[in-house]
Specification:
The structure holds two protein chains of two kinds. Chain A is mostly helical. Chain A has eleven helices and four strands, in the order H-H-H-H-E-E-E-H-H-H-H-E-H-H-H. Chain A has one domain. Chain B is globular, with a radius of gyration of 26 Å. Classes of the chains: A mainly alpha, B mainly alpha.
Chain lengths: 305, 461
C-alpha cells in the first residue's frame, strides 16, 4: 500500500511534465493538423536554457533565494523558447502550409534532428548535471518502515503545473486569442473571412506550446537535475502518446493522457521491469491508436467520401 | 532619374531595417546556447564561460545575409518569376531523359573498376566503401520504402525495424547454424516480410500520421527488445564476428584457398569490397526492377488506387487488407535483404545501427527525392548520404579553423538542416513529376501535385 502511494506520487509528478509537453502537440495538431515532431527537442532546448539561466543566477549573480531564482529561470526559459519556436514555425512550417501532408512532417523531423545536433555541437555531448536545487520533503505517513514522502520539488512541480494549466485554460476559453484559436481549429478559411488573423493565431499557438514546453523543461531540470542533448526524443514521443491517448486535439485530454502515461510508466517500472518501461509506453501508443484512435476525449474522425 | 534614386534609397533603408531586425532576432535566438558554454571545472561542477565573439559572428552572418537577400536576391527572384515559362521543353532535355538511365547504370557498374585502376588498392577503399556501398544501401532501402510510401501511400516511420530483423536474422542464423550468406539472404528477406505482415495486421485501419506514429512505435519497440533481450542479442554490446560473405564458397582471405590465391592475384582487401559493391548493386537494381514491374501488375495498380482513394478502391471490389499487407511485406522483404547485406558487410551489428534516425533518413530520402520517383531516390541518396560522407573527408577545414575542428560532428546538424531546406524549397521533392503507368495515347509526365502520395485525408479542415 505505502509503496503504491509513493509510486502514485512519483507517477503524477512525471505525468505533469508529460502533460505540459502533450498540450503543445495537441494544440498544434488541432490547429494545423501536423504532428510537430520537433516539439520534444524544443522541450530539450528549453531545459538547456533553464540550465544556463540557473547557472548565471547562482554562480554569477549570487542569488540565494531559490524561489526568486526559480521564478526568473522559468520566465527566461519561457521567453527564449517561445521565440525559438516562433522562428521555427516561420522558417520551417509556414512555407509548407497548404502543401501535401508529409511535407511539414518531414520538415519537422529535419528540425528535430537539427535542434538536438545543434545543442550537441554548441554545448557538448556530455550530460549536464546541477546540484539539487530544492531539497527536503514531507513525510506523509510511515508504515512498515517505509516512509511515503512528498518532496518539496514534487510539490512545486504539482503546484506550478496546476497554476499554469489554469492560466492556460483561461487563455483558451475566455480570451480573444483563445476564441480565434478555436475558430481556426474548426475552419481556417471561415475564420479568416470573419476577420481572424490566421497566420498570427497559428504563430501564437506555437508560442504558447513552446512556453508550456519550457515550463516542462524547467521542471524536468528541477526534478532530475541533469539534461543532455538527446533528452528530447523519448519524452517527446511519450508526450505525443499522452496526447493521442487523451484524444489528439483535446486539451483536457492531453493533461489526463499525460498523467496516465506518467502513472503507467512509473508503475510498470516499479512492479514489472524497468528495462521495458519505454516498451510499455510505446505499446500503449500502438494499442490506443489501433483500438481507440479518437482517444479518451477526442472526437471521432469521420471519413467522408 | 530622381525617382529611381529615391526608390533605390528607400529599398536600401528598408534592407537596413530588415537586416537590423534579423540581427536582433539572431542575437536573441543564439544568446543562450551560443553566447554561453556550459563546461565542468576541476571539481566536476558545471561552470559557465561566455563566447561573445562567436555570438556576434552569428549575428553578423544573419544580418548581412538578410541584407544581401533583401537587396539583391529577392528582386532577382521576383524578376525571374515574371519571365514567361517556356511551354516546350528544349530538345536536349528529352534526349537526356532517354539516355540518363542506361548511362547511369553503366557508370555505377564501371565505378569500382575505374576507382581500382586509378587510385589503386589503398586510396580506392574509402571511395568504393564509404561512397559506393554506403549510398547503394540507402538507395536500396529508399526503393524498398518507396513501395510502401510512394506506391501504396502508407506512411512508415519504422522501416528500420525490418532492416534490423534482416540483419539480426543473418547474424544469428549464420553464427548459430553456420549457414552461408547466399542461403540466408532469401531467408532474411522472408523473415522480414513475415514481420511486415505481423506488424501490418494491427495497423490496417490506420492512415496517414497515425499510421506513421504507430510504425514509429513498433520500430522503437523492436529496437528496445533488441537492447534488452541480452540472452539472444547480446544487448548494447551487439553481435561480433559475423561471417563475411564468400565468393560462391571462396573466402576473401590471404590464405591459399582465398580469392586472390585461387585467381592468381596479389592479395588485397579491396577485392572483397568490390565484390560487396556488386552484390549490393545487384540487390538494389533487383529492388528497382521488381518495383517497376510490380507497378504494372494488378497488385501494383491496386496499390496506387489505394493511395489515391481508399473508399473508391473498396467500392471497386479491391481487397484492401491484402493490398496493404502485400505492400508492407514487399517493402519489408527488401529491407530484410539490405539488412542481411549490412550485417555481412560490417561483421558487427548492434541496436545502435537501427535507431529512429535511420528510419527518418530513409523516409527523408524517399520524400526529398520525390515520392514514387525511382531516379529521385537515387539523387536524394547521393545528396544526403554522399554529402554527409563527404564531410568526413574535409580535412582541409582543419587548416582553416584549427586542429580542434572536427567536420564530422556537423554531419547530422547539416543533414537536419538540409531536410528542412529541401522541403521548403521543393515540397514535392527534387523530382516533381510522375509518370502514370496507365495512359490513353502517349506516356506523359504529370505534376506530382496531381497524385496523393502520403496525402492522408483528415476528417475535418
Amino acid at each position: 500500500m505505502e509503496y503504491f502511494v509513493q509510486q502514485l506520487i512519483n507517477g503524477i509528478t512525471l505525468g505533469s511534465i508529460y502533460g505540459l509537453i502533450a498540450i503543445g502537440y495537441t494544440m498544434v495538431f488541432g490547429i494545423i493538423g501536423m504532428v510537430n515532431f520537433a516539439h520534444g527537442d524544443v522541450f530539450m532546448v528549453s531545459a538547456f536554457i533553464a540550465l544556463i539561466a540557473f547557472l548565471i543566477l547562482t554562480t554569477w549573480l549570487g542569488i540565494s533565494s531559490i524561489a526568486l531564482a526559480l521564478f526568473i529561470v522559468l520566465l527566461v526559459a519561457m521567453t527564449f523558447t517561445s521565440l525559438i519556436n516562433w522562428v521555427i514555425e516561420r522558417v520551417a512550417y509556414r512555407p509548407l502550409r497548404g502543401s501535401f501532408r508529409l511535407a511539414p512532417l518531414i520538415s519537422a523531423i529535419g528540425m528535430s534532428i537539427f535542434l538536438s545536433n545543434f545543442v550537441q555541437v554548441a554545448q557538448g555531448p556530455r550530460n549536464k548535471s546541477i546540484p539539487p536545487m530544492i531539497q527536503g520533503e514531507f513525510v506523509l505517513f510511515n508504515q512498515n518502515n517505509f516512509a511515503v514522502t512528498l518532496s518539496y520539488k514534487q510539490l512545486i512541480i504539482w503546484s506550478i503545473t496546476a497554476v499554469l494549466l489554469f492560466a492556460f485554460w483561461y487563455l483558451v476559453t475566455k480570451t480573444r486569442l483563445g476564441r480565434a484559436q478555436r475558430a481556426c481549429e474548426q475552419d481556417q478559411k471561415m475564420a479568416a473571412l470573419v476577420g481572424v488573423d490566421v497566420d498570427r493565431t497559428i504563430s501564437m499557438t506555437f508560442v504558447i506550446a513552446a512556453a508550456l514546453a519550457a515550463v516542462a523543461g524547467t521542471m524536468y531540470l528541477v526534478y532530475y537535475g541533469v539534461v543532455s542533448f538527446s533528452d528530447g526524443f523519448v519524452p517527446g514521443v511519450k508526450a505525443f502518446t499522452a496526447a493521442v491517448l487523451g484524444g489528439i486535439g483535446s486539451l483536457p485530454g492531453a493533461v489526463v493522457g499525460g498523467l496516465l502515461i506518467g502513472l503507467i510508466e512509473t508503475f510498470w517500472s516499479a512492479y514489472f521491469s524497468i528495462d521495458y518501461k519505454d516498451v510499455a509506453a510505446f505499446s500503449v501508443l500502438a494499442i490506443t491508436l489501433i483500438f481507440l484512435p479518437q482517444g479518451l476525449f477526442g472526437r471521432p474522425d469521420v471519413e467522408k467520401v | 532619374m530622381a525617382a529611381g534614386a529615391q526608390s533605390g534609397r528607400v529599398a536600401t533603408t528598408g534592407a537596413f531595417r530588415d537586416a537590423a531586425f534579423t540581427g536582433l532576432l539572431a542575437f536573441a535566438l543564439f544568446l543562450p546556447l551560443i553566447g554561453f558554454l556550459t563546461g565542468v571545472n576541476g571539481s566536476n561542477e558545471l561552470i559557465l564561460t561566455t563566447r561573445w565573439p562567436l555570438l556576434f559572428a552569428f549575428v553578423a552572418i544573419a544580418a548581412i545575409g538578410r541584407f544581401i537577400y533583401v537587396l539583391a536576391l529577392k528582386p532577382w527572384l521576383a524578376r525571374r518569376a515574371q519571365q514567361p515559362v517556356r511551354a516546350e521543353a528544349p530538345a536536349w532535355r528529352a534526349y537526356v531523359t532517354d539516355w540518363i538511365v542506361p548511362f547511369a547504370v553503366a557508370l555505377v557498374i564501371a565505378y569500382p573498376l575505374v576507382i581500382f585502376f586509378t587510385l589503386g588498392s589503398n586510396g580506392g577503399q574509402k571511395w568504393i566503401d564509404n561512397f559506393g556501398i554506403q549510398i547503394l544501401i540507402y538507395v536500396m532501402l529508399g526503393w524498398g520504402l518507396n513501395i510502401v510510401v510512394g506506391l501504396a501511400g502508407l506512411l512508415d516511420l519504422g522501416y528500420v525495424a525490418f532492416y534490423a530483423v534482416g540483419a539480426y536474422s543473418y547474424a544469428l542464423l549464420a553464427k548459430t547454424f553456420g549457414l552461408g550468406f547466399w542461403v540466408l539472404l532469401p531467408l532474411a528477406g522472408i523473415l522480414s516480410s513475415f514481420w511486415g505482415i505481423l506488424l501490418g495486421f494491427p495497423v490496417l485501419r490506420l492512415r496517414g500520421d497515425y499510421l506513421a506514429i504507430v510504425t514509429l512505435a513498433f520500430g522503437e519497440i523492436i529496437r528496445l527488445v533488441l537492447i534488452n533481450w541480452v540472452a539472444l542479442t547480446n544487448g548494447y554490446a551487439g553481435i561480433i564476428g559475423i561471417p563475411r560473405p564468400t565468393f560462391f564458397g571462396i573466402p576473401f582471405s590471404a590464405a591459399d584457398n582465398g580469392f586472390a590465391a585461387v585467381f592468381g592475384l596479389q592479395f588485397s582487401p579491396l577485392y572483397r569490397i568490390i565484390f560487396l559493391y556488386y552484390v549490393i548493386l545487384a540487390l538494389a537494381l533487383l529492388t528497382c526492377f521488381v518495383s517497376l514491374r510490380l507497378r504494372r501488375l494488378p497488385i501494383g495498380r491496386a496499390w496506387e488506387a489505394l493511395r489515391e482513394d481508399e473508399i473508391a478502391c473498396r467500392s471497386l471490389g479491391i481487397n484492401t487488407t491484402n493490398t496493404k499487407l502485400t505492400a508492407f511485406a514487399m517493402g519489408a522483404m527488401f529491407a530484410g535483404f539490405a539488412g542481411s547485406f549490412f550485417a555481412a558487410r560490417e561483421a558487427f551489428i548492434s541496436p545502435e545501427s537501427f535507431t529512429f534516425i535511420e528510419s527518418a533518413t530513409i523516409l527523408a530520402i524517399v520524400v526529398l527525392g520525390g515520392m514514387g520517383s525511382q531516379i529521385g531516390v537515387v539523387i536524394a541518396a547521393i545528396v544526403m548520404i554522399g554529402g554527409s560522407e563527404l564531410l568526413r573527408q574535409l580535412d582541409f577545414l582543419k587548416d582553416i579553423f584549427g586542429p580542434g575542428f572536427d567536420p564530422t560532428q556537423y554531419r547530422m546538424l547539416l543533414f537536419g538542416l538540409a531536410m528542412v531546406l529541401i522541403m521548403v524549397w521543393r515540397p514535392r521533392g527534387l523530382i516533381a513529376t510522375r509518370t502514370p503507368s496507365v495512359f490513353l495515347k502517349q506516356r506523359k509526365r504529370i505534376s506530382a501535385d496531381l497524385v496523393k502520395e502520403g496525402h492522408a485525408t483528415r476528417g475535418r479542415g
